Amino acid sequence: MKMKMKRLWILAILMLVLVGCRENTAFSGEQCNEGLCVKIEVVEPVRWGEPVTLKITVMTETAIPDLGVSIFTYPPDVAVEGPTGWESTSKEGIVWKGGAGWLVTTKANQPVVFIRNIRIPATESPSLVEIQANASTRQGRRVSHSVSIYLTREGGKVYYAGTPVPITPWPLPVYIVTPGLSPTPQPTFTPTPTLPPTPTPPRSPLATPTPLAYPFTSPLPTPTSYP
Amino acid sequence: MDDILIRKYVPGQVTIRGTLKYADRGSNEANALGRYTKVYLYEQDPGETDDLLAITTTDGNGFFQFPTLTNWDEDGTDTDPNNRRLDIYLVFEADYEDSTSARHRVTDLNGYTYVWPTSVLNDISDGLINLTALIPNNFPTLGAMWIFQDLRRAWEYIYNNTGIDPGSVTAKWQRGENCYPSWPFCSSFFYGGPGEPFIFIDDASRFSGDTVVHEAGHHYMYNKTGWWLWWDIRCYKHSLFSQEDVRCAWSEGWADFLPLVVNGDPCYDFRTGPCTGISDYDYYDLEAHSRSDNSQLFPFGDIVEGRVAGALYDLFDSTNEGFDSASFGFAPIANIVFQAPNEDRFSAFWNSWKASGWNRHHAVRAIYQNTIDYNTSPHFEPPLPDRIVLQGFGWENAIDLWAYSADDESYDWELDWQVVHVSDHRCGVTIDARDYVDIYPQAGWLGSCDVTIRVSDSLKTADDTFRVNVVPVRARVFLPIIMRNRP
Q1: What is the structure's pLDDT at A27?
Q2: CATH code of the domain containing A108
Q3: Hey, which end of chain A has fewer CB within 10 Å, N or C?
């Protein structure tokens, strides 16, 4: 009986250790798909006119020898620094207008972190930049995670996926075009974050909403998805 | 009694026209035109319901013009007539009827069509008002305009190149939503079940015009054939180079091909593109993939959608490489896809192609270039005949090779022949430029030889052997020459 209790204690301790290991390797807030996880974070504070540092973390359930990792920005007039100076784990790194990509060899459930610096053009008017991080396998499994930075002279505010950027759609700017002159804004506009952060797409006063056919009938149709 | 001066204000006329622009996926605000978009002209009445004055649509250049209006606010109360002129604004809507049977629109997940109201222009002047409206690059619903323009471009491409109206598409998209509510997975898809068919574009894919046209491609195929591959559970996890069921590879391969031609580049891009990012991760250049690929990384055959798409693209394009010598354009492909019989796999498409009368030789080569082998071997039919040649004589055009060769995909003039073996070179056997076998044995030589000839359709070959016997002249018959006397 004493022996059995001892074994149970050892087993319990072993389980705690394993759980601890598991917690060490996990990270939160990521996007996952079929054992492929990616997360992008912005190192704050973000200051107008200064490089912005991104932290990209990837983790895979199984070891993958050539996992593709890329970041894309919108608008694409954002420069990504590198590939000189990147971590040695980043293989075959390339940069392009508004993005960068590299390959990495992952081990099962071991997060790999990459640090990238980007330069957002410093404009007088506020700018909203969305950065999407992607992890994909050669076989076509993909996952994306994005973050947005709302940048003004006063600094940048970061909005993660799932936290809508608090910009209520404003009326479109409309210009009266005078022949021979440059278009004159009527009126000028400035996108202003408004709270509460609920993006309310303008509802058509004209179109009749078309309700969906819920619930779907059995058997559940399986649509063809992306690639 | 004093004179009373009565003034009558006569309102002027105003014509409102303009152009809709938007920031495209490259953030270009100057040249992206809001083509074929519905435009509403409203008169603002604060405190009351705004008056709808007119409806029109933008044209292919994003231009719109409303009928001339009387510049007078009927609901106004200001005593100064100069303040009773129209206070107008526009509302653009992501809804357009491409034809009497086709309409494309973009809605949010609740089914509301996206609209873009403009700011108000108060007390507009009489005469011609020329406006430019812009959906700028940080506008929250800009993605809906991208998708809306993608759909029009896809419809227009098919209609302009084939005369076939592929029908309507409704796209659902909403900023920040990568998963469709109550749907079992998170990605873009086409739905053709009960209720109205639609495509869902996940938010991360709004940057990919290829993904939008891909899903529209499924929708068009469904519109024209009623075919929707919903029952294949495995197809849900497909990717460009995954091995799938032949039906999944056909359905997805067609949908992978369509964006290449509509968006004008050979890369399938998961972002804006063209061909931007890490190759074979962020985009796949389907023109570059070929039989030279590592088949462990990029499997071969018609169970791979990327191979089907690449084959369709090589049938279409005029850039020829490797075995690809085809340049058929879009119409022969789309005519088969959209018209009966409804193919459910690429081999069925190939059967329809053969039945359509279009050239098979170049087509099968384009398909072969993409690792799909539908080519049959050429053959000799009937077998090559033996030939007897008299010693000291030759035989020009001894065998017409066209008469003894056949191939299911190639015409005679598309085949090629060569002498691959002669048991005795003194036989003097050659093939001339017109594909005849000529036999000119060495002078004075007697004997026989076996000659092997190979026919090739450029992908496969077949051999046949015939015998040449050079025999002595055993006897001669001399015929008298009878000459006519000349007068």
Answers
A1: 60
A2: 2.60.40.3880
A3: N
CATH fit for domain B145-369, picks 1.10.10, 1.10.260, 3.40.720, 1.10.390 = 1.10.390
Assembly ipTM: 0.85
The residue that leads in pLDDT, A108 or A223, is A108
With an 8 Å Cβ cutoff, is A164 touching chain B?
Answer: yes
Please give the structure tokens belonging to residue A100: 């960068």
- Provide the shortest C-alpha distance from residue A22 to chain B (in Å): 26
Is residue A148 in some structural domain?
yes
Give the separation between CA B97 and CA B221, rounded to whole angstroms: 19
| Res A188 pLDDT > 70 | no
Please tell me the pTM assigned to this model. Answer: 0.86
Which residue among B110, B134, B136 places its CB closest to the CB of A209?
B110
- CB distance B92 to B60 below 8 Å: no
As a whole number of Å, the CA-based R_g of chain B is 35
CA distance A76 to chain B (A): 6
Asked if the C-beta of A128 comes within 8 angstroms of chain B's C-beta atoms, the answer is yes
CATH number of B13-97+109-138: 2.60.40.10
Q: Is the pLDDT of residue A194 over 50?
A: no
Is 70 exceeded by the pLDDT of residue A42? Answer: yes
> Does A172 lie at the interface with B, CB-CB under 8 angstroms?
yes
Spatial CB neighbours of B323, under 8 Å, sequence gap ≥ 6: B291, B365, B366, B368, B369, B458, B459
Q: What is the pLDDT of residue B486?
A: 67
Residues of A (77-106) whose Cβ lies below 8 Å from B: 77, 92, 94, 96, 99, 101-103
Judged against a pLDDT cut of 60, whether residue A208 lies above it is answered with no
Q: Do B134 and A138 touch (CB under 8 A)?
A: no
Q: What is the pLDDT of residue B467?
A: 98
For chain B, residues with pLDDT lower than 50 are none
Chain B residue with CA closest to A140: the answer is: B239
Question: What residues of A are in contact with residue B182 (Cβ under 8 Å)?
Answer: 214-216
Residue ranges of alpha helices (H) inside chain A are 2-25
Q: Determine, yes or no, domain membership for A111.
A: yes
Count residue pairs from A and B with Cβ separation < 8 A: 249
